[in-house]
TrEMBL record:
Keyword Phosphoprotein in annotation: yes
Any Pfam family the entry gives: Response_reg
Keyword tags: Phosphoprotein
Protein name according to UniProt: Response regulator
Xref: PANTHER family: CHEMOTAXIS TWO-COMPONENT RESPONSE REGULATOR, STRESS RESPONSE REGULATOR PROTEIN 1
4-aspartylphosphate, modified sites: 52
Location of the Response regulatory domain: 3-119
Listed InterPro entries: Bact_response_regulator, CheY-like_superfamily, Sig_transdc_resp-reg_receiver
Amino acid sequence: MTAILTVDDSVSIRQTVRMALSGEGYVVTEAVNGQDGLEKSGAGGFDLIVTDLNMPVMDGLAMIRELRKRPAGAGVPILFLTTEADPEIKGQAKAAGATGWLNKPIDRQQLVRAVKKALVK
């Protein structure tokens, strides 16, 4: 089974991602911020990560930068799911190792398509 970690401080966004992706047969684990995401992904085992950008404790950019330093996170596709639309921040995310970018509000079909595409690479 394909394991996905969703990282977002919004309960409703995490639930929406979990429902959309579990409905496609993925196993989804939730984390409440970047630090929680790092801890849950520490041993590896995730095939893809969907993360918010702006979160308390540790934001998505900091989490990606740390994940990419670790062997378990070096090759894992990471999709941002955020309200942020600033091209400069998108560039920073890409430079940090983000695989893709989706804007909130979430479109379930778009999310599923982006996840499937990221997993093929």
